[in-house]
Every structure is written in structure tokens, then in C-alpha cells.
Amino acid sequence: MRSLFISAGVLSMMLGISFVGRMYGPQEEGLQEWGYAAVIWGIILFYAAMKQVHYVLLKILSGAGIILHGPPIILWIIFHGSTITDGPSAFHAHWAFSLPYLYIAAVCLFVIGMPPKMIKNSFKG
């Protein structure tokens, strides 16, 4: 399970950096702030995966991950085929862009559904 957390944390950092760096073209300021939040959440998740932290903290981080990464899943699907930038750009949304967010949300749901004893055992040593 540690490797799932590490991969979800790194993926969140990469997705956040793509919004902070305006990879998709001119965008609203809120998306850049979301990118910073995704990077910070990814760093915290990565750190939690490396250290032995209390299972309650892991469940709280997972809940925050669903809240943070849930809306992009919905928005990438809703705006499939639409131009999503504020200004001249040829970038169009596609439902496949939601797949990394779905992976992160699935990892978070998996952790939330796990019994505490299983979480404790998977993060030992």
C-alpha cells in the first residue's frame, strides 16, 4: 500500500505542477491555486507514505484527496471537446484527462475502506 500512496502523491504533484505552470494555456486564477493545493497534498501524502503515521491521518488525507481530486474528474468529463482556456488556445478537454484523477481517487477510497489493522500492518517497517 505504501507504493500506492507514493504513486498517488507523485501523480498529484505532477498534475498540480501542470496547472501551476499553465500547461493547458491561459486559465482562471483558481486553477493555478488548485494546482498549488494538489502539489502540497502530494508532498504531504508522499511524506506520510515514507514515515509510519497514524492510520487516522491516512484516512483524513484520503478524504482530502477525494475532495481535491473529485471535481476535476467530473469537469474533464463534462467539458469533453470544449475549449477550456481563457484566451486564444487550441487546447480542448478530453475525458481521458480524468484518468489520473480517477486513479488518485481510487487509491483514496481504497484507504478509507480499509480496516485500521490492515493499514497498520501495511505501513510497518
From TrEMBL:
Key words, A-Z: Membrane, Transmembrane, Transmembrane helix
Domain of life: Bacteria
Transmembrane segments: 34-50, 57-79, 91-114
Protein name listed in UniProt: Uncharacterized protein
